[in-house]
Amino acid sequence: xxxxxxxxxxxxxxxxxxxxxxxxxxxxxxxxxxxxxxxxxxxxxxxxxxxxxxxxxxxxxxxxxxxxxxxxxxxxxxxxxxxxxxxxxxxxxxxxxxxxxxxxxxxxxxxxxxxxxxxxxxxxxxxxxxxxxxxxxxxxxxxxxxxxxxxxxxxxxxxxxxxxxxxxxxxxxxxxxxxxxxxxxxxxxxxxxxxxxxxxxxxxxxxxxxxxxxxxxxxxxxxxxxxxxxxxxxxxxxxxxxxxxxxxxxxxxxxxxxxxxxxxxxxxxxxxxxxxxxxxxxxxxxxxxxxxxxxxxxxxxxxxxxxxxxxxxxxxxxxxxxxxxxxxxxxxxxxxxxxxxxxxxxxxxxxxxxxxxxxxxxxxxxxxxxxxxxxxxxxxxxxxxxxxxxxxxxxx
Length: 396
Hints:
Arc Repressor Mutant, subunit A, alpha/beta, 19 strands, single chain, Rossmann fold, globular, 16 helices, 9-stranded mixed beta sheet
């Protein structure tokens, strides 16, 4: 086992658990005496375990889990998103080509009879193998190998292939393509389809949906997954010989439940919204819908009207159940600086800008609006192209 197994000694595990709330910098200065482990190794375990408390509670609450560097935790799926992925596919055999910390593989093990977890990093592969034993997972085989190399060497077919390509280090901060990632799934689609009819690709929410569609073929579904209104993953479900247009499915996982919205890209392109002045209620789609680009289908699905072609806010006189934030419009103000300063200066409010030429910070500074409170201000553009301000209170 390439990692330090002494970290799993009872005394060291007790020390880790006892110092999860301790200031790490102070702990490093104290340099406590520990058997067969360094304080650096212990601090690494503490930092990684803390990362798991909310993101990976199953691991956090299981005894004798060995944690890798916190970067591996940060790059892994959360249990919420892993469970969502596992519900998309089931069968006898799945191979995870980029296994990482094993979160997705664990959840796939609940919907497949057997899972192969490929991880090129030998130490991380050994860690995952140890942890699966602690988690009582017995139908996942861990293999320390590049997933694509495994496929090239095997003649086995799978009910599904899962891959989570990583962005290359040299493109940080840049617009990127799937072909910029490792492994390059675009260049190896033929290899993948030679082993399975069903492929699930996870990509960063930074990837543009239209750009992904230009690179990939055989797309059956695109899933935009948000947690608490923050987009976490784009999922691309590919199927050999698919002939229908891709279906886009969005989900926003919240404490209060899940918001779902699905649409076809063909319908989105062919739909023209109705435009209106602000009415009684204002609707702001959740982040998954915004990322998916369902700007036209959302209004027709919920019988709403749009404020402006580039203002992705919607309105109605009758309150409807909506996948996003809903507000009651109390007042509509003209975008006149002196008037707004007199009306809104020192007001405590939450500010949002949509199709508006200035940032939230610039608006606050210019008018003197304080942050917080129960009032919501939307600086936006109406159907006539005029800048307006909506004073709202939240309904949902």
